[in-house]
Amino acid sequence: MGSSLYPDWTELTRECLIDIFSRLSMGKRWDGPMLVSKKWMDVCQDTSLNAVLDLEAEFLSSTDTTYWWSPEFEEKVDSTIRFAVDQSQGELKELRVRHCTNQSLSYVAERCPNLEVLWVKYSPKVNIESMRKIALNCPKLKELDISCSYEITCECMELVGTNCKNLQVLKRNLMPPSEVARLKRYAYVQKQYLSFETLGNVDAYTIGRHMRQLKHLELRNSTLTDKAFAHLCKRCSNLEYLDLVGSSYLTSVGVANGTSSLKNLKEIKKPDFAATLFN
C-alpha cells in the first residue's frame, strides 16, 4: 500500500473506481483516467459508465461556435457518438449532442433500443431518414430536444409521437431572429439551415394529435397563433411546464384562454407581449 501521505490509487477496488469515475463526464474520463493505466482504462469501459453521452457542457463552454457548422466538426461529433455507442455495448440511455448527422443517429437507433433521452439540437443534417429509425427502434424515449434542427419536420414528430408513448418532454425551440442574423455572417453556415420561420401551427396540431401525454413542452420563438395554441392545450391537458418565450404571434388573451384548460400547469414562460405589440 502507499504511504498515508501518498495513497496508491491503483489499489482501489473496481467498485470504488466505478463510483468515482461515475462522477466524471465521459469526456473527462477519456482525457484523464483512461490514460492512467490498463486497469483504469478497463474500468472506464464498463457499460454502467457509458450509458450517458452528454456534450452540452462542452458546447456551452466553447467559444469557437462557427466551426461547429463545418463538415469536419460534424464528423468529430459523429465519431464521438459511434465510440460512445460501442463503449456502451448498446446500453446507451441518454444522448445530448449538437451538430450530429443522420449517419451517427442511425447508428444509435440500430444499436440502442433502451434510449430514453435524445438531444439533437442544431443538427441541420438530421432528418426523417434517422428520425424514423429512432421512432421505430427506441420506444422507451422519454425526452426529445430537436431545437433549431429545421430538417426534423412534423412528419418526424408524428412518427415519434405514434411510436414512443412514454415521451414526457419535447423541446421544439427555434432560433431568435438575432441569432439567425449573427450566423448569416459566417461562411460555414449555409443559409438553408437558418429557415427559422417554420410552420408553428402545424407543429402545434401535430403535437396535439400525437403527443397528448406530454408534461413538459418548449416552443420558444414559434410562429403558432392563438387558435392553434388553444387546440394544443385542449389536447395536451397533462402539461405541467410551458415555455413560449419569443412566440410573437401569441396574444396575452390567447395564452390566458388556452392555459385555462391546463389544470396541472405549474410553470409557464410567456412571450413579452409588450415587445411584440410594437414590432
From TrEMBL:
SMART domains: LRR_CC. InterPro entries: Leu-rich_rpt_Cys-con_subtyp, LRR_dom_sf. Signal peptide: none annotated. This is F-box/LRR-repeat protein 19. The lineage of its organism: Eukaryota, Viridiplantae, Streptophyta, Embryophyta, Tracheophyta.
